[in-house]
Amino acid sequence: MITTPTELDPEADPNRFGTVAFYAALGKAFVAMWAVVAALFAIEALNIWDGNRLISLGGIRPHRIDGLDGIIFAPLLHTGFDHLYANAVPLLLTGTFVLATGVGRFVGVTLLIGLASGLGVWFTGSPDTVVVGASGIILGYIGFLLSRGIVERSWWGIIVGALIGLLYGAGILGEVLPSDDRISWQAHLFGFLGGVLAAIIFRRRRPRVAPPVPTLDLSTED
């Protein structure tokens, strides 16, 4: 039998709520997401300095081949600091909880959400618009966190999902339905659905517990 480090020391399991490793993973994820948000502010400063050229170059242009590269770049761009400020806090919060589940998982979840959100905008968005912003990613993270606890049957995941639901639940419905021509509800809707799908695809499977090995009773009766 091979014994893993987490079996030797439960405190080494970063997925177990309350362990030292859990809090360490959460803290590292929070610092990393601060770096991500800082990078977005740097990109926005460059965009403003360049007269918003980055938006025209990197935004999603629905139904146009030259707008497909926006699926990659649009989440990094915003229409101004007000737009970025509105996204910074929810991105920091939701991203921290997703990143704390593991770097590889975070990358896979983010790529799937970005692809779902971006393609949804490209196929269904208005052809005379340019779409930018990280809100599709944020709604995807919310969808992932809301679904993860149920999919993995994890009480901690369900609690996190409930917390996110309390903080953003009232606004989710308005974000994924047509309500404002200036807001891409398509990015939000398909990002949210991408997050739900990511919770299923990237779910953490519980390790199988090996059945006990039967022992032979070699004792004899007198």
User: Beta fraction of the residues?
Assistant: under 5%
| Rg, alpha carbons | 22 Å
Helix fraction, binned, reads 55-70%
What are the secondary-structure elements, in order, as H or E?
HHHHHHHHH
Number of distinct helices: 9
Q: Class, according to the CATH hierarchy?
A: Mainly Alpha
**How many extended strands?**
0
Short description:
With 222 residues, this protein is mainly alpha-helical. The protein is built from 9 helices and no strands. It is 64% helix and 0% strand.
Question: What does this protein structure show overall?
Answer:
There is one protein chain. By secondary structure, this protein is mainly alpha-helical. It has a single domain (14-201), classed as Rhomboid-like (Rhomboid-like fold, Up-down Bundle), CATH 1.20.1540.10. Helix content is 64%, strand content 0%. It is built from nine helices and no strands. α5 runs parallel beside α7 (135-152), α7 (135-152) packs antiparallel against α8 (155-175) and α7 (135-152) runs parallel beside α9. The longest helix has 30 residues, at 20-49.
Summarize the topology:
Blueprint lengths: L4 H4 L11 H30 L3 H6 L11 H4 L7 H19 L3 H22 L10 H18 L2 H21 L9 H17 L21
Defining key terms:
single chain; mainly alpha; Rhomboid-like fold; 222 residues
